[in-house]
Automatic annotation (TrEMBL):
Cofactor binding, note field: Binds 2 magnesium ions per subunit.
Superkingdom field: Bacteria
Subunit structure comment from the entry: Monomer.
GO MF term list: damaged DNA binding; DNA-directed DNA polymerase activity; magnesium ion binding
Alphabetical list of CDD domains matching this protein: PolY_Pol_IV_kappa
Biological process, per Gene Ontology: DNA repair; DNA-templated DNA replication; error-prone translesion synthesis; SOS response
Record key words, sorted: Cytoplasm, DNA damage, DNA repair, DNA replication, DNA-binding, DNA-directed DNA polymerase, Magnesium, Metal-binding, Mutator protein, Nucleotidyltransferase, Transferase
Compartment(s) where it occurs, according to its Swiss-Prot or TrEMBL record: Cytoplasm
Keyword DNA repair: yes
Entry-linked NCBIfam families: PRK02406.1
One annotated Gene Ontology cellular component of this protein: cytosol
Protein name: DNA polymerase IV
Length: 364
């Protein structure tokens, strides 16, 4: 008898759904006076950070995580709207219920974004493209909101596809298209390549997927460490990561690198504010609360300093997170060198709202 062989695995069918300007679109849907106008959710005309921007605002260069003052300077007619996270969460749950009509393998990334494995779909539709089309139609019908969808044979390309022709787009990257499509992709459009890594790659002469593919794994490892294997694979249109249903996130964090180093406590505290906003917003988006707050400082000589506090109850609100973060900053002062980066993270995550404000006092 011939030796048994493992069956050839069936190619995955992955959809990435990304709601178009989700928070801002909800506000424009609910307030007709905002439709067609540049809208920023979060912040104010005087202070704070933009959490989301409508496409009308993006035309002026307004982006999420941008200081409100900068956004207003770029778009004097910008309308600032207070975020309504409880509304966004409720709509997100409605959208996820639509996903669940088609597959049980759903990996939420944020309130407005998710991966779906529809290799086998519950409605018996003939293709992943048909599933994506049905999901987009159902979202529009039930919520009045527009979603973009990317369809491909892995998560990386599905993400690239959903962003390719936004807004209001459905784009498919087939196995035959994948490697060639990646060749012409600008390196800044690679999911997982942030601004700092993009700058490092450009300094090495890596401008496109083709440039990245031409670099051997050994060279990439020397420059990018453990991330090199991922870059090496996706440059060839390959990504073996499965869609993970009910993924548990271990931490939520954000950081920023300064244009000019500083050791001034007042300046550092000011630069922490948008990071606190981003971490707290992500915490709300994920429906998670954390018990441990960690402050990270990278000094001018590239050494790392961390300070952390934990408690038995999660941090309950943005004010509590700010109080702990600034307390950790005070513990780190004075710095022996100037700092070039500051970051903040929440870990020890729990699902749901915190029952009451937690007093974090145990340093670890």
């Amino acid at each position: 008898m011939p030796p048994e062989t493992d069956p050839i695995p069936k190619p995955r069918k992955i959809i990435h759904i990304d709601m178009d300007a989700f928070y801002a679109s909800v506000e424009q849907r609910d307030d007709p006076a905002l439709r067609g106008r540049p809208v920023a959710v979060g912040g104010s005309r005087e202070r704070g950070v933009v959490a989301a921007a409508s496409y009308e605002a993006r035309a002026f260069g307004v982006r999420s995580a941008m200081p409100s003052v900068t956004a207003r300077r770029r778009c004097p007619d910008l309308v600032f709207v207070k975020p309504r996270f409880e509304v966004y969460r409720a709509i997100s749950e409605e959208i996820r219920a639509i996903f669940a009509e088609h597959t049980a393998i759903i990996e939420p990334v944020a309130l407005d974004e998710a991966y779906l494995d529809v290799t086998e779909n519950l409605q018996g539709l003939p293709s992943a493209t048909a599933v994506a089309r049905a999901i987009r139609a159902a979202i529009l019908e039930r919520t009045g909101l527009v979603a973009s969808a990317g369809v491909s044979y892995n998560k990386f390309l599905a993400k690239v596809a959903s962003d390719h022709r936004k807004p209001d787009a459905l784009f498919v990257i087939t196995p035959a298209m994948g490697p060639t499509f990646v060749e012409t992709l600008g390196i800044g459009r690679f999911h997982g390549v942030g601004p700092v890594t993009e700058a490092r790659m450009r300094a090495l002469g890596i401008e496109t997927g083709r440039d990245l593919r031409e670099r051997p794994l050994e060279e990439l490892s020397a420059h990018f460490g453990s991330a090199a294997a991922y870059y090496h694979a996706v440059a060839r249109g390959m990504d073996d990561r499965p869609v993970r249903a009910h993924r548990v996130r271990k931490s939520i964090g954000a950081e920023t690198t300064f244009g000019e180093d500083t050791a001034d406590r007042t300046v550092l505290a000011d630069r922490l504010q948008p990071i606190i906003d981003r971490v707290w917003q992500a915490s709300v988006d994920k429906g998670a609360r954390g018990r441990t707050v960690t402050l990270k400082l990278k000094l001018s000589d590239f050494t790392l300093m961390t300070r952390a506090r934990s408690a038995t109850l999660p941090v309950a609100d943005r004010t509590g997170l700010e109080r702990v973060a600034l307390g950790l900053l005070d513990e780190a002062m004075p710095l022996r060198r100037t700092a070039r980066l500051v970051g903040l993270s929440l870990s020890g995550l729990e699902r749901g709202d915190a029952p009451e404000p937690a007093q974090l006092g145990l340093a670890i």
